[in-house]
Structures are given as C-alpha cells and as structure tokens.
Amino acid sequence: MSPAPVKEKKPVIKDDSMWLQKELISRNYHELAAAHTQGKKISATFVPGNLNELLMCFDFVRRLPETDALQSGLRKKSGKMIMDAERDGHSEDVCTYVKTDLGMMLQGETGPTGEPMPRPDVLLLSYTGCFTFMKWFELVRQKYDCETVMLHVPYQGDGRISPAMRDYVVKQLREKVIPTLERVSGVKFDIDRLRQYLKESQKAEEDLVQVLQSAKRRPSPIDGYFGAVYYIGPIFTAFRGDPEATRYYQLLRKEIEERIQAGKGPVTPEGDHPGEKYRLVVEGPPNWTSFRDFWKMFYDEGAVVVASTYSKVGGVYDFGFRHDASRPLESLAEYCLGCYTNLNFPQRIDMICRYLDEYQADGLLINSIKSCNSFSAGQLLILREVEKRTGKPAAFIESDLVDPRYFSAANIKNRLESYFQMIKQKRMAAAA
Ligand code: SF4
Question: Residue 107 falls within a domain, yes or no?
Fold first, then answer.
C-alpha cells in the first residue's frame, strides 16, 4: 500500500506590519536571553493589567508568561511541556498556560524561540480578576525565590469604577509597587519618563481602535479574532509605550485603510479572504496549537469574525479609555480596573450585545477553553442571555489554549457547519 500523500500547506501570506511585529517579538526574546550577562534586570507580569510603561521606567527587560506559553503553543512545543508539568504533580485541570510555563522551567529554561529564558528578578502580580495569576506566581516564586510585588485591583462587582477603587490602586502604586521596582532595578522613578511612554501608548491605542472598528464595514477589512491576535500583540505585551509599537500601529492602520480603499476583506494565512458570508462575534481565547487549521475552518465557510472579547483582554480601548499622560498613575489604575477579566457578567453581556449590534453580526460563537476558568466560568449564562436579548443565534465549541490533546478538529468542524446552517435558516425565515 502506498503511503498517504503528505498535504503541503501553502506558505503563510503576511503583511509588512506582521513582519515588523515578528521582528519586535524576536528582538524581545534576544534581549531576555542576553539580559543577565549584560547586567539588565528582568520583570515578569501578566497580560491583563500589565504596567508596561511603568516597568520601562526602570529599564526592565519584560517577560509575559502567557505570551511565552502561547508562543510555545504556536510552535507546537507546549504539549511536551504540559506533560512534564503533569508528571511533576500538576493536575490535568490546571490552566495550560501555567503548565507550559512550569514545563518550560523543568526542561532547562529554554524559551519558545530556543533561546535561554533566564529567571525573572521581579514578579509584578497585577491582579485583575483571574485567581490563577496568584497561584501561578506563587509557584514561580517558590522555584526562583525572586522578589514579588502584588497590585491588588478591586473587581468591578457593581459594574463601575468608583473614585475610591482608583485611589486604592494609585496608593499601592505609590507606596508599594514603585518603591519595590526602584529597589530591585536600582533606577530612580522619573514621572516625566512615564508621561512620555504614556503619550506613545495613547497614539498606539487610537490607531488600534481605528483598526478594530474598521470591521463595522462591509466587507470587513480585518478579522477581529484571528487577525486581531496579531494586531494586539505589541500593545498587550512588552511594547506598549515604546515608539516602535507606535510605528507598528501607524503602519497597520495605513495597511487597513488601503484594504478599505481596495474593497478587500481580511488577509488570512491562505491569502485574501474569498468573500464574507457570515459575520460573527467570538467570546473566549483561541486555540494556539492548531491556530492556522482553526482559522481555516472559518475561512473555508466564508466566515469573518468582526469582533471578539479576547482582543480586549489586555485592555478595553474601544469604549473610550486611553492612557493619559496628564494623570499618569490614575490612568494606569483605571487601565487595570477596566480590563476585560475584571468586568462582571452584566458588563461582558452588554459588551457582546453591543458588538452584535454595532458590527451587524449574524451571531455569537463561544470558544470555551477547557483549562481557563477565568473565561469559561459563566459562558453558558452569557450565551443564553445574549440570545434572549438579541434574538441572534449563539453556539458553543470547546478546545484548549495550548494543550493539543483538547483540539478535536472533526468535532469543531461539525459544530461550526451546523451553526452556519442555523444562521442560514434564520436568514431564510427572516426573508420569508
Ligand atoms: S485561567 Fe485563563 S485568564 Fe487565567 S491565566 Fe489561565 S488562560 Fe489566563
């Protein structure tokens, strides 16, 4: 019997902004690898509530453990790391970002690009609604015995940020976080330096919002989930506040404006989108280990995601928030308080209903992540409430972030096909 033919994948099509982003990410991994030999200090912090501009004021080289895990997932390295962490005693139900990080440490501290990933000098735990963050850094601290500073961000239980909540965060920044960062880095805090970075952040945030909101057009020139993962990369990680990130967003905005002029749909790994048949809103993070195959399932059906909640996980900018250089610490506090993970259920439901309406979407799709309790908790409630309020169909699929054992392509494809059928029938019923 002759062997089954090996399916060749087409080379991925990338815009200039994607290459620039790739360059920024590789540069950061080089800097991390060389940091200690060059006498630089390393910070680690999480994506939601990351205080990147503040960390830059102390010359830290910046690590974001979730990004390291997802980069390992994209490179198909996370499966082994997760199994190593499980063999070391971490249960199957633990967030797979955590196990990828722990497995990476067990495997000799080599990062996703194959370069060394040295121990952090400080863990900045900005706590914005995910309990796992706390346990994750507890484990890292146990391993490295490094300095840890926690910023407690009050949850928006009542769906609003009160002045007392903001002042409480600012007080911690002044009295605890900044003095710790000064001590670990040996660099004195300079508020004007912070203001300068915040000005850069604001410019980048404005361009990002224009890009994300371009999906309100028909056809949408972007994919607001799969494509947006690239667009949020620099601003949600080690680059917000860096003039290089500002340049990235200028370039990206220009590219999207050109697509609008040309009447083009989103760029995808397969090339330009063939034409939008379905417009969706997606809740929940994507799967990284089969990212391209996952995206292709939508591409093959002519589906475009016009808005997603995941593209707001490192900052909700589309409802008006911008970092503000004239109120540096207050705006850092408001940024943390307003993170998606810190919003209560009614706020998340309102946000999704607003997206469905403003982006003229056909329906909501939830990708429920097996090991992400922070996103998954309450998703069925969200689904039912959104369906009730909008009358638009919603569907549920399940996968995982970086654990390849929990990506079942056949199941997801079946679910998607029946979901698109459901949308078609709804349309036909409405037209009758
Ligand atoms: S549980 Fe979810 S939100 Fe929390 S760290 Fe893991 S992936 Fe992130």
Answer: yes
**Total domains, the chain:** 1
Residue 39's φ and ψ, nearest 5 degrees, are 75, 20
Alpha helices in 121-225 (DSSP H): 131-144, 163-172, 178-185, 191-213
Look at residue 312 and tell me if it is in a domain: yes
Provide the whole-model pTM: 0.94
What is the Cα–Cα distance from 332 to 197, expressed in whole angstroms? 12
Q: Which atom of ligand 1 is nearest to the CA of 373?
A: 1
Strands (E), 243-370: 267-268, 271-272, 278-283, 303-308, 363-369
**Does 95 sit in the ligand 1 pocket, CB within 6 Å?**
yes
- Residue keyed to tokens 């390295």: 77
Within a domain: residue 89? yes
Give the structural domain span for 146. Answer: 16-431
Q: Rounded to the nearest whole angstrom, what is the distance from the C-alpha of residue 132 to the centroid of ligand 1? A: 6
Name which residue sits closest to atom 7 of ligand 1, judged by CA. Answer: 372
pLDDT tens for 209-252 read 999 999 999 999 999 999 999 999 999 999 999 999 999 999 99
| Structural domain includes residue 4 | no
